[in-house]
Amino acid sequence: MGEYKDLVSLAPWDFIFQLGNLLILTLLVKKFLFKPVQKILNERQEKANALIADAQKAKQQAQTAQQEYEARLENAKEEAAQLLAQANQTAALRSEETLNAARAQAAQMKQKATAEIEQQRKKALNEVKDEIGGMAMAIASKVVEREINETDHQQLIDEFIEKVGDAS
What we know:
Blueprint: H1 2-8, H2 12-145, H3 150-167
Helix pairs in contact: 2-3
């Protein structure tokens, strides 16, 4: 039992040495293990915070860029609408100018055609007058050559009208 007594007994010097060992081991672990681990953890935390800050800054810049893009897009749409309206207005003016020019040209052509028709009519009338004069002379010479009775007179008039109809 004496042997077991040493195992169960409490020796004050052993207790003090074990407590000293525990204290020294705790200080060594704290200095060589906890402080470097804590330093690494702090560095990682700082890096993570920096990355988060960069991401937030990038997100803010992206939102600003998106707002600028949307504003530019809206301005571009407005400019396109204005250009389209202006193009439509220009096209309408050109169409109106072309239509007016075509009307003026048509009126001029009509006036020219009317003048030409009038000239041709006068020419035809002069030719008919010449033919009528020639026919009248022919009728007169025939009348002078022979004595005309009612049936001959009617026959001469019919011939004259027939010749005038053929001439026209």
